[in-house]
Request: fold
Amino acid sequence: MPAPNPRDRTPLRGGPLRGGCLCNAVRYQITGVLGPLGHCHCGTCRKSHAAAFATTARVAWSDFEWLAGRESIQSYESSPGKQRSFCGACGSPILAAWDGDDELILRLGSLFDDPGTRPVVHIWTEERAAWFELGSALPTLPRGASQPDASATEHREGGKSASRDQANP
Reply:
């Protein structure tokens, strides 16, 4: 199975997708389309989620709307120019975003609704937790998914972690 194209998009079915945090202080909705769903095994995703991987999808900022709790959002700069945002009360990861990017990286564990599509890839498997065994039939990419603008992204941070974080599906 070929690796997914990170520019592919899935239209939402049945209206907006809703999501939020564990304590319900933060709520959002998405209209429009989702990028490919993927499981990221990079070290920063594993640490920020305290899990073997983070399931993510790209969403245009123009398709994302805060419904409640925007003031509760806290952010952490995990890589130069990349903010990981979470609920300041309960700590639930909500999204990540590169400074100036027109898309955010949604943390799908925060969705209330079924996105109507399923993950298509495991990325950054070279950094996966040693105790986690990949058992799915999804393709695996030792590093991030390739993107047409990957070389420009690497210059933003000066190396591997820029392409790793930018490549989250």
Remarks:
- The CA atoms of residues 80 and 157 lie 6 Å apart.
- Confidence is low (pLDDT under 50) at residues 147-169.
- The chain has three helices and 13 strands.
